[in-house]
Design a protein that fits this description.
Elements (H helix, E strand, L loop, with lengths): L4 E7 L5 H8 L4 E4 L10 H14 L3 E4 L6 H13 L3 E7 L3 H10 L8 H10 L11 E5 L1
Parallel strand pairs: 1-3, 1-4, 2-3, 4-5
Amino acid sequence: MEQPELIIFVGLPASGKSTYYHERFASTHVRVSRDLMVKVRQSESKQLREIGEALAAGKSVVVDNTNPSVESREPLIAMGRRHGARIIGIHFEADLKTALARNRQREGTARVPDVAIFVTRKNLVPPGVEEGFHKVMVIR
């Protein structure tokens, strides 16, 4: 069996993460996103459970959330390690103005309050290999 991948997206809301998933990984990787867990209590533990189950089954996973801080990525990386996955961080570099403009084009629940973008930007720490990633890529 081929080594599964755990790809962790990092970036502001509306920076292109979900679009990139659909264009590049939809046919090969399971998408796990707290945005898809509508009204789920303890979405973080549910997310970790879904990631663990997919990796245990030998499936590759994309974690499609903002994952802005080292602390938010730590349990994800630990889960990937437990399952022997190749762990890749993909940082979506989008400036604030672009993210706000893209967000305004969204409709319904896809649109987040502007404050969510500001808060995420304030907490955003670009991913680094020292966190335990095998590889880190930047998408501009």
